[in-house]
Amino acid sequence: MLDMTKKIARRRVTGGLVAVAALMLAAPVPLAPAQAAELEFADPPPGFDTPRKIMLQLTSDDEKTVNNVLWNAINLQKFYGFDNVQLAIVAYGDGMKALYKDSPVAERIENQLKFNIEYIGCKNTMDTTDRAPDDLIEGVEWVQAGIAAIVERQLDGWVYIAP
What we know:
By secondary structure, the protein is an alpha/beta fold. The chain has a domain at 52-161: DsrEFH-like (Hypothetical Protein Ychn, Chain: A, 3-Layer(aba) Sandwich). The protein has 5 helices and 5 strands; from the N terminus they run H-E-H-E-H-E-H-E-H-E. It has helices spanning 2-25, 63-80, 106-114, 123-128, 146-155, and strands at residues 52-58, 85-91, 117-122, 141-143, 159-161. Strands 4-3-2-1-5 form a 5-stranded parallel sheet, sandwiched between helices.
């Protein structure tokens, strides 16, 4: 009985391999080159009176991750158009390090503030790391709890992205 079970199993495996080999030897199907898909906007479409409200979370002090979040904001602004999107970057935890005057990305953030990208820092994080609102880059806002700011904005219709 055991020998019969092994033979059946072997046939199934062999049969499966033969089927895969046959598919691999079949004439290749030419693939169309990759194309950009058209993006269909939700209703109402983004506009001056109906801007997309998008908030990005910043919780890392890793230079690559921080720069990725900053580029995400710029790319969203380019895509939707300056007047068609409101952007906010909410930082807490290690992400707060990017918002201080002594940050390696301080100059980038200062420039983004000029283009109406809002930066919001977490006072709870400042309290636990012995930092103060005066340490923030000029123009960066702060709230007591960064996570609560995310929750409240979501409830107010903001789209939340955690890159």
